[in-house]
Amino acid sequence: MLRGFYTAASGMLTQQRAQETLANNIANMNTPGYKADQTAIRSFPEMLIQEMRTNKIPTTRGLKLPVQEPIGSIHTGVYVQETIPNFSQGDIRETGLMTDIALVQGNMPDETGALFFGVQNEAGEERLTRNGNFTVDGQGYLVTNQGYYVLDAAGNPIQTNGMDFTVTPEGIVQTSDGQAVPLRIRYVADANGLTKEGNDLYNGDGVPVPAGATYNIRQGYLERSNVDALQTMTDMMTAYRMFETNQRVLRAYDESLGKAVNEIGKL
């Protein structure tokens, strides 16, 4: 009976974590370039239950032999193994702002491959993002809304000298003074291995775009989040019902244990 408490409790904790992940997806539904998280739920390893006893052999010395007889397997609950972002392409929305840049990826040489903008965080380290909601800071550098420098192909901040610049479909930033600077577009073969950080940043090693990958840069557009609001709300209701089901099981175990202690224990 006590094992049933742990099994039901693990189910409640798992659905609570799944609910938190879904709620975070809903909260970032309007965040440009946001990639929805998906929870991978697994069960704990099964345990084999055996009956351990001894058989007495009718001899003069009264020998006893240990015997182990298998009874069957028992499940020990579930847990959230990991949270995996969904890197599918989001819808493209026109904004009319020339500082907004959408990265539209086409064919990828790897099934789990994805493309990202290369930016520089506050510690001077390179990070990856799909949020192209950029702006120009007071010094004329192209930055994200959080103030992170957008990098060129060589890994240096891009100086646009103001808002008057254009970006070609190939990702070349053309400034008013005649400079042509390529954006730092990075390719990750296994995007599921990236570590998700705050402010729409991913930590991982990217490489230059390989020959088999195609993409298109669209200025004045933004990639919307790929959160499916209807499906997410349905999943939230399912997680809530599963939580309630485990809660009722836990309550039933508690009532049974109470009867065993208060009623059967009196006999």
Ordered list of secondary-structure elements with their pairings:
Blueprint lengths: L1 H26 L9 E7 L3 E10 L7 E11 L3 E8 L6 E3 L6 E5 L8 E7 L5 E4 L4 E3 L5 E3 L4 E2 L14 E3 L4 E4 L4 E3 L2 E4 L6 E2 L5 E2 L3 E2 L6 E5 L1 E3 L5 H34 L5
Antiparallel strand pairs: 1-4, 2-3, 5-20, 6-19, 7-8, 7-11, 7-15, 9-10, 12-13, 13-14, 15-18, 16-17
Helix pairs in contact: 1-2
Question: Would you write up a description of this structure?
Answer:
The chain is an alpha+beta fold and 267 residues long. It folds into two domains: 1-86, no CATH class; 89-223, no CATH class. It contains two helices and 20 strands. Helix 1 runs antiparallel to helix 2. The longest helix has 34 residues, at 229-262. The mean pLDDT is 88.
